[in-house]
Amino acid sequence: QVQLVESGGGLVQPGGSLRLSCAASGRIFSIGVMGWYRQAPGKQRELVATITIGGSTNYAEPVKGRFTISRDNAKNTVNLQMNSLKPEDTSVYYCNVDRARTISGWHFNSWGQGTQVTVSS
Q1: 3-class SS at 113?
Q2: Are strands 105-111 and 91-102 parallel, antiparallel or unpaired?
């Protein structure tokens, strides 16, 4: 079992910044790709950014140059620094792990509970 707990969401004015954090727990030996996704009301969940165990990153076009994803492999955490936030960034943000090797075996496609980010004046 891989548990993901997000934190750091909230209300911010346009142009402001927020930092999201996600911690994975569950007696984990290693984690593959970690990522952030978001889902706005009435829309499908979409990719925001991903990062491999080696540190290679991938960003959705709308957030390139504004968001930065990072991870700490020793702590099994992934962060998302969000700058120059826009109202259209308003969504529930979800942490994702594509695969994790734990004491009980491999676990695939694990999701956190989500954290609300609201960008509004």
Answers
A1: coil
A2: antiparallel
Sign of CA dihedral 39, 41, 63, 118: negative
- Identify the H or E element spanning 30: strand 28-31
> 51, 59 in Cβ contact below 8 A?
no
64-83 burial: b if 16+ Cβ within 10 Å, else e: eeebbbebeeeebbbbbebe
Q: What does the pLDDT look like over 49-91, one tens digit per residue?
A: 999 999 999 999 999 999 999 999 999 999 999 999 999 999 9
Q: What is the token pair recorded at 48?
A: 């925001």
C-alpha neighbours within 13 Å on the C-beta side of residue 41: 4
